[in-house]
Amino acid sequence: MSTRSEQILAALQEFLSTPLAERLNRHRHTGGEAHLLALFHTAVEQVPAYRSFLAAQGIDASVIRSLADFQRLPLTTKQNYMRAYPLAERCRDGDLSQYDMLAMSSGSTGTPMIWPRTVIHELDIAYRFEQVFHAFRADERSTLAVVCFAMGAWVGGMFTAACCRHLAAKGYPITVATPGNKKEEIFRVVRELGPDYDQIVLLGYPPYIKDVIDGGRADGMAWPRYVPKLVFAGEVFSEEWRDLVCARIGAEDPATATASLYGTADGGVLGNETPLSIRLRKYFAARPERAREVFGESRLPTLVQYDPVSRWFEVHDGTLVVSGDGGVPLLRYHIADKGGVIAYEEMLGLVGNEVEFGGRGAWPLPFVY
């Protein structure tokens, strides 16, 4: 068996045998700093572009031994790193052939970029989907996952389908359907297959999912019959909007019927909503002054929780910087989203006993907005 096969087999075995709670609590025992520094030194050793990037700025990687050292490293950006070095050089060993999947970004900020990955990178992101589906009780309810993102070269649809299939392999009673952004096919899948499952999950871009829901209602679709859950990605929305779509599908508790993913083509899914983060967001939505104190403005940002061992967040001049492994490892990558980080204990102190912090899906993970 080749080294590549052995690595993939080990990653699959770890994913399939690791309970979600164990995975999400690991940061409490190991901390994210050690994983972050290990990623940095591995990237220096294996990624030609990152070695060149540091050398061009006169940085000796061997002296980076602490989090404080790491935080003094220069930021990487699309301009000074992603577009400055060839794709192969940004990959491990400068070899694109070791990756089994290529995806395109949307190009919303310029020319679309190509992002390579392997099954190993998908499995890391699959834990984010597991958090969401676990909150939907998909570990104990038969679930039809209907992927409504565009399929093909674009990152969202294929990545989502792959991660849902990994959950099925882990033992979740999930079946994945991939009609993509074809409304008539979505309706056909739901009508023909939905009655055979305890619930369905529609995954897609928020405005498009609303269009599917409204179009189905106009076409006589009785959404409550299928016990729908909704997974969103790609756009921020208000709590009033969430309540509206939930009312139209007959979902009584939006905190356990919806979840938004915070993802990018370059970093994968960086964080995800949980029942806890949704309850907190609704709390702040009803208190604009408190929201302004915490987030800097009364308009609510996306609020998610993240695993600091998988993705490490920093704040630079009020914008987010992320580090994490992937087909192209990210080291202090400036994603330029306006936002910030709030520790779990800090958030608990901000709201006290005004928000229920227990229950299913309430993980002791930090927040990013």
Summarize the structure.
The chain has 15 helices and 14 strands. It has helices at residues 3-17, 20-30, 32-46, 48-56, 67-70, 78-82, 119-135, 155-170, 183-193, 206-218, 239-249, 254-257, 275-285, 288-295, 344-351; strands at 101-104, 114-117, 143-147, 174-177, 199-204, 228-233, 258-264, 268-272, 304-305, 311-316, 319-324, 330-338, 341-342, 367-368.
Structure, explained:
By secondary structure, the protein is of the alpha/beta class. Helix content is 43%, strand content 18%. It contains 15 helices and 14 strands. The protein has a 6-stranded mixed sheet with strand order 4-3-5-6-7-8, with helices on both faces. Strands 9-14-13 form a 3-stranded antiparallel sheet. β5 (199-204), α10 (206-218) and β6 form a beta-alpha-beta unit. The chain is globular and about 65 Å long.
Task: List the topology elements.
Layout: H1 3-17, H2 20-30, H3 32-46, H4 48-56, H5 67-70, H6 78-82, E1 101-104, E2 114-117, H7 119-135, E3 143-147, H8 155-170, E4 174-177, H9 183-193, E5 199-204, H10 206-218, E6 228-233, H11 239-249, H12 254-257, E7 258-264, E8 268-272, H13 275-285, H14 288-295, E9 304-305, E10 311-316, E11 319-324, E12 330-338, E13 341-342, H15 344-351, E14 367-368
Helix pairs in contact: 1-7, 7-8
Tags for this entry?
369 residues, alpha/beta, 43% helix, six-stranded mixed beta sheet
